[in-house]
Amino acid sequence: xxxxxxxxGPLRVAFVGTGNMARAHLHSLRRVRTAHVxxxxxxxxxxxxxxxxxxxxxxxYQTLRELLDVGRPHLVHVCTPAGTHFEPARxxxxxxxxxxxxxxxxxxxxxxxxxxxLAATRGLLVGAGHQQLRDxxxxxxxxxMRDLGDIVQVDxxxxxxxxxxxxxxxxxxxxxxxxxxxxxxxxYTLVDALERMVPPAxxxxxxxxxxxxxxxxxxxxxxxxxxxxxxxxxxxxxxxxSLLAASGTSGTLTADFLRSSVVGAANPGATPLEKAGNPLLxxxxxxxxxxxxxxxxxxxxxxxxxxxxxxxxxYAAAAAGGASPVSPDHLRCVTALFEELAANVRxxxxxxxxxxxxxxxxxxxxxxxxxxxxxxxxxxxTKQLAQQxxxxxxxxxxxxxxxxHVHEWLRLDLSRCALGEAFTGADAVVHAAxxxxxxxxxxxxxxxxxxxxxxxxxxxxxxxxxxxxSSLSVLRPPRTPWEEQDEQTxxxxxxxxxxxxxxxxxxxxxxxxxxxxxxxxxxxxxxRPGALVDVxxxxxxxLLGRRLFGRWHxxxxxxxxxxxxxxxxxAAAVVAWTVAQFADAPPVxxxxxxxxxxxxxxLEEFARHGWQGRMLWVPIPLFTVLVHAARYSFAxxxxxRPTPLALYGILxxxxxxxxxxxxxxxxxxxxxxxxxxxxxxxxx
Length: 684
What we know:
- The chain is of the alpha/beta class.
- It has 3 domains: 11-129 and 308-320, Rossmann fold; 136-304 and 342-348, Dihydrodipicolinate Reductase, domain 2; 367-618 and 654-683, 3-Layer(aba) Sandwich (Rossmann fold), CATH 3.40.50.
- 40% of the residues lie in helices and 20% in strands.
- The strands form 6 sheets. Strands 7-8-9-6-10-11-12 form a 7-stranded mixed beta sheet. Strands 15-14-13-16-17-19-24 form a 7-stranded parallel beta sheet, sandwiched between helices.
- Residues 354-358 have low confidence and may be disordered.
């Protein structure tokens, strides 16, 4: 049903949720032709909401109800986290607004039916973030499908790299959540292709014929009136890919969503000439079309292909009283299939999860609160603490209930608040949470604000011992090549942003700890680990270099230059030792492993554990010149000077005094081993 009313004047647009996708939507509005104005934004994180509002030159509202009542939007973008789309979408429809909902649309068919029925009765449109339906590669595939004869099957393949903690370390439920999160893209393109294959008169539903699911992989066969679709989604397969292949009686074509290109020969490939010529034709297509597609993506910057086009079509329909570019029947079908497939993935995660047995800890054992307990370093810290007989309470925004070393979880966004109840009964707090990516606003919230909130929460709970995890990157660059930096080396200047958001945030947070902890009656120990590495799962740190292609990496400097690193297990053992021996621990410790002091030594250690990479070394001064030249070249068309970045100061080699680190590492390792043996004997 089309809308029964159209707005007069520009569309009044509002946003609910201010994450990365909301910013992508806002960026895409520059290419939307329908007149519109952003009238408001709401997010549960008030700081994030205000920052997004400033970016959109609009108003931040404290509640969704206030946004809908005062802002009176004609159209609402629902960009809240997955699993939380239904409530704001329903409220927006009840307020008389069209809704464009990020993927996944909703979690269940019941929710989809309720939203679609509500929209139909009120003459409103519902859209979903199925932007690949307007991707140039998919549109090209649709135009050429008529050359394939009778379509027999469609294959949708999606390989994705897990974000966050190492995939080998992450729990099954965390991996399953990521798999479910990326599932909608390969699913809705497959469904749309199958819907186009089946004649309208047949009205054949798309059904799931078979499913094989695990927390890292999903394989399913869909059936629609004699046509078949094969869905394959993996967090393990490489390289990262997003492909949709249509096969018919006259050939096969493949849309590559990463390269925005279509490759294939629309012929049966049965004659000798076709057999010999098709590989050559496809090689030419791959070179030319992939090159053109990649160039287009670079020129578009951070745009998601098809997103602006889909939003533009949705706005045009809302303004003119047309139909949604994503039909209700399509949304019903995709949601029903998504619900069943996601249930299979989650069920498989519960089945395969093998929880390690927690050490038998008495209820009167000392309690340690660990913020950021789900992170790469946080997971190792909780493991070391649990092995030494501590009860561990983990704090993070997304708890990982299967972690065998965390005895209790608390879901809390530290950037907003840290109530005293979160730290009640704690013997000590290990503050390891911090922003690891994003801009200055993200580091302001999740590093600076979170650190200050932790201090006030500890003070309210009467907890007096803090172990703060900082970073060696906070030290100002050496003034001479032979300068040896130690625990007394000053930090980077407080207002200096030339070293990037991460250094700015971590150095600012360390200053907060140093300046405010004493006044709150809190004793602090600051640990500054170098680049953390896991030799069992070798991955070169950013200060060493970047992957180029296959086994080849671009290395910064030369093999003999110093590189401050520490194996993550050893660093976590030092954290646990600092908690246990708080009075004897140094106030500040630059944590560098004396056994791995150079780039060559780290690569030798990686190779000993199976790493087979190769390094192409480039002088650091030359690399910085090339990067700065590239940054200014990309900024030239916009006539805007790029943000200052002291890349040489970040990458230049530094020399550190290792005396204190060597002594503490030795003590931590020995005492951890002894205490773990004692605990094992007492619980046997």
